[in-house]
Structure formats: structure tokens, C-alpha cells
Predict the structure.
Amino acid sequence: MTDRGESKDEIRNRRLEKLRFWRRACADESDVFKSYNMEASGNPLILFHGDFDMGGLYVRRLATECNYPIVALAPQGLHDNNLRASVEWMARERLKDVLAVKPSGPYRLGGYCNGALVAYECARLLKEMGHEVEIIVMIEPSSLNAKPFYRRLYSLMTSVLVPEEKRSPAVQRRFGDLMYMAWDIGRVTHLSFGEIARLARYIVHRRATRRKRLVQQETEAAAAERRIQEKNAYLRAFYTAAIASYLPPPVTTPVVVLSTGRDGGGRQCGLYDGTVWSRLASNFRHIQLPGHHSTCLSLHAGELASNLGSILRGPPPGRPVPAPPQLTLVSNTHTATGERQGVR
């Protein structure tokens, strides 16, 4: 214990909150889109980085290690307050930026977490416009949306609602919150009662600790931290409602999902079971990542970059690999003219 009566864990958490403050400040100063390795060869990957915590800082390392052209697009909310809790709306808004970066196809789209779903929906919109989409690369996508139970529940609830684009922002947000409640059930169905109880105690303790810290902060600097923390919490809740209320349609575009199957606490979690996307993609590949939802971008960023480089530098997905030229072997004999024949 310290003079302030804090335990080592409380000190560590307080320091992490300070770090989160500066990370958030960096995110606020990030660009809407940023290009990497554009001088390198290859059809650029347009990556919806989905990181409103650090502004997509992890993309720099991925781009450096895989040495492939990448254009990173930021999620809505970092640079504007005009938000709607809808993946479809986010994709329609970001489609303008995609076309500004690359007016015509073929396109390669990808994304992390919430950005993976926006990339998936954006690919659908591009196909509707007549553009070719070579591949969708989804890193740690929220995957409950692809499961049959969720899709049946979604259809039942939307049967009494107007189409997404006609709903008011308030109705869309409430719908997302309700679907998130279904998510909560889906995330813990594989856990034992003891594991569920421990998880509930952890969540309650974490929220109580955060509230206590906010009450204790009285300085001007702490007030700035509080505003950033509140904005971060708002964005998380907003994006959760958006992706929980999204029903991804089946696609014929090749889809590669890279996932850990574990949440940010390292627990096995159906939310990030990327294999279920095989139900929606007729041309599908899954790559198992080490670590969990957060560490796959930090401790295991090297493995992620290696897999990403292999995907992007391989032959275009869905197209046959050209066969190597056949060599005809002829017996090593002499012709009547005395010429020696070998390999033709």
C-alpha cells in the first residue's frame, strides 16, 4: 500500500488510465486516411482500421513488416460527431473516401474489429455499383452476426421495424442496444456458471473502480482526462450498438478471416470465432491468430503482418493459379545429322 492507500493493482490501473488518456489524444490528432508503402508494387489494401483508441497506430507496424501498399481509413467519430449506430450508414459514408482513394476497381478491402464489418458492407456496395472486389480481409471481426440464432432473432425483430435507412437515429440506437443484449447471451453460452460469475464480478469491480477514480479527479488536467474517457466510453457503446444491429448478407467475394477466438481479457469467446463466417462466404479461408483480441495487434503483430503479407502477395483469390510450363524430355541420343538432343 502507498501513502494514498492504493494497492499495486490500483496504481497500475491508474497509470494505464493515464496512458489511455495520451493514446486517446493521439487518436484525436490522427488522419481520416493515411497511406503506407504506396511506392511498393501491388493492388493497395484499403483497411478500415477500426481503432478509435489510438487512431490506427498499429497499421504503421503492419505496413512496415509486410511492405505492401496500405491505405488506412479511420472510423467515424474520431473527427466528427455526426454518428449513426449503423454499419450500413458507416459504409455508405466511407464509400466516398474509398472512391476518392481509388476511383475504380479491382478493390482489396480489409478491416479490424468494427472496421471489418464496415469493410464487408462497403464491399457489397461496391459490387452493387458494378466494381470488382478481389478480396475482403477481416481481422478479429465480431462474429455472432453470422450465427443462425442471431440471424433468426434479427429477422424477427426487424419484421416490425422500417428499413434501416428510414429509422430515426434514436430507434436505430435502441435496436442496437437490444441486439447487444442478445450478444451478451451468445458470448457466455459456452462458459460454466462459475466462469460466468467470475466474469460478472470482474465487470462490476472494473466499473466501480472507474467511477471511483472519476469522482476523485478534481484538477483541470483530470477534467480533460475525464472528457476523453467519457468520449471513449461513448464511442465504444455507440459502435457496439452499430455492429450488434448489423446482419451481414451472404457474399461470393473471397473472404479471409484472421481471428484469435478470444476476447480482450484472453477468455475463449464466441464473439471472435471467425470460422462461422464460412456460413456466409462461398469462397472462405480462416487463419488462426495467436494471442487475443488486443494482443494480436501488439505482442503478436509480427505474426499478423506475416499472414497479411502472404495473403496480399499471393495469387488473386478465386482465380486459378497458372500451371507451370511443361518440359518435354527427349532421350539423350544423336540424330542422323549428328546433332545431340536434350530437353526441349
